C-alpha cells in the first residue's frame, strides 16, 4: 500500500509538471505579456522562463519582444543556467533585430553571468555567497565590469555593479592575504613579502582581519 501511495504521488508531480509546461499556452497575447512582465525572476525564475519562452514561440513579432527576450535572459541567469544564458546573450548581441536600447541590459546580464558562474558551488550550498573558484575568473569579471562602466557611464545598473565590484575586490584581497599567510607559515618570508607588496599595490584600501595576523610576523610587520 505504501509503495502504491508513493507511485501515485510521483505521478501527480509528473502530471503537474507537464501541465505547468503547457499552462501558458492557454493565455492570450496581452495576458501572457502581462504575466511575463509581472513575474519576479528572484521569486520564480523557472516560471518566468516558461512564460517568456511561450510568448516568444507564439508571438515572435510582438512590439515588446525585446523586453521579453531580456526577461528570458534574466530567467536563465536566475535559474543558474549560466552556459545557456551566456550563449543566449551572445545570440542577442549578434541579432540585428535587437533594439540598441536593450543592448545595455544584455551586457549587464553578461557581467552578472561571469560573477555568478565564478562562485564556488560548495560555498553557495553552505550559504557562503562570496566565495569564488579562482583569481583569474574574478579579474576577468572585474575587467568586464570596467568595460561596461565605460560603455554605459549613465547606466542604472552602475549602483548594483559598484557593490559587486567591492565584493569582488574584497574576495581578491582576502585571497592575496591568504597566500601571504601560507608562505609565512611555511617560513618562506621572501615569497610572503612579495605577495604582501602585491596586496598593498592593488588593495591597500581594503581592511582585513588577516592583515593583523600577518603583521605579527616580525619580517612582515
Structure summarized in a few sentences:
This protein has helices at residues 2-23, 29-38, 45-58, 65-78, 82-93, 103-117, 121-125, 135-151, 158-185, 189-203, 209-215.
Question: Which short descriptors sum up this protein?
Answer:
single chain; 221 residues; mainly alpha; 11 helices; disordered N terminus
Topology as a string of helices (H) and strands (E): HHHHHHHHHHH
Helix content: over 70%
Q: Say how many strands there are.
A: 0
Radius of gyration: 23 Å
Query: Which structural class do the helices and strands define?
Result: mainly alpha
How would you describe the shape?
elongated
Low-confidence stretches: 1-21
Largest sheet: none
Q: What is the strand content?
A: under 5%
List the quaternary state of the chains.
single chain
Q: What's the tally of helices?
A: 11
Q: How is this structure best described in words?
A:
The chain is mainly alpha-helical and about 220 residues long. Helices cover about 70% and strands about 0% of the residues. The chain has 11 helices and no strands. It has helices at about 1-25, 30-40, 45-60, 65-80, 80-95, 105-115, 120-125, 135-150, 160-185, 190-205, 210-215. The longest helix is centred in the last third of the chain and has 28 residues, at about 160-185. The N and C termini lie far apart (about 70 Å).
Amino acid at each position: 500500500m505504501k509503495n502504491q501511495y508513493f507511485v501515485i504521488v510521483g505521478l501527480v508531480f509528473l502530471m503537474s509538471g507537464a501541465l505547468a509546461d503547457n499552462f501558458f499556452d492557454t493565455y492570450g497575447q496581452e495576458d501572457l505579456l502581462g504575466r511575463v512582465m509581472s513575474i519576479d525572476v528572484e521569486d520564480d525564475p523557472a516560471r518566468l522562463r516558461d512564460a517568456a519562452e511561450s510568448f516568444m514561440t507564439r508571438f515572435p513579432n510582438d512590439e515588446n519582444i525585446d523586453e521579453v527576450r531580456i526577461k528570458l535572459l534574466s530567467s536563465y541567469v536566475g535559474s543558474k543556467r549560466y552556459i545557456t544564458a551566456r550563449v543566449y546573450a551572445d545570440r542577442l548581441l549578434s541579432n540585428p533585430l535587437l533594439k540598441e536600447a536593450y543592448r545595455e541590459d544584455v551586457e549587464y546580464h553578461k557581467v552578472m553571468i561571469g560573477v555568478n558562474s565564478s562562485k564556488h558551488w560548495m560555498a553557495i550550498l553552505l550559504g557562503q555567497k562570496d566565495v569564488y573558484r579562482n583569481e583569474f575568473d574574478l579579474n576577468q569579471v572585474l575587467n568586464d565590469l570596467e568595460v561596461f562602466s565605460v560603455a554605459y557611464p549613465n547606466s542604472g545598473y552602475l549602483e548594483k555593479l559598484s557593490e559587486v565590484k567591492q565584493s569582488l575586490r574584497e574576495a581578491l584581497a582576502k585571497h592575496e592575504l591568504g597566500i601571504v599567510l601560507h608562505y609565512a607559515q611555511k617560513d618562506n618570508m621572501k615569497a610572503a613579502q612579495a605577495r604582501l607588496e602585491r596586496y598593498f599595490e592593488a588593495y591597500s584600501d581594503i581592511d582585513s582581519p588577516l592583515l593583523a595576523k600577518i603583521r605579527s610576523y616580525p619580517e612582515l610587520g
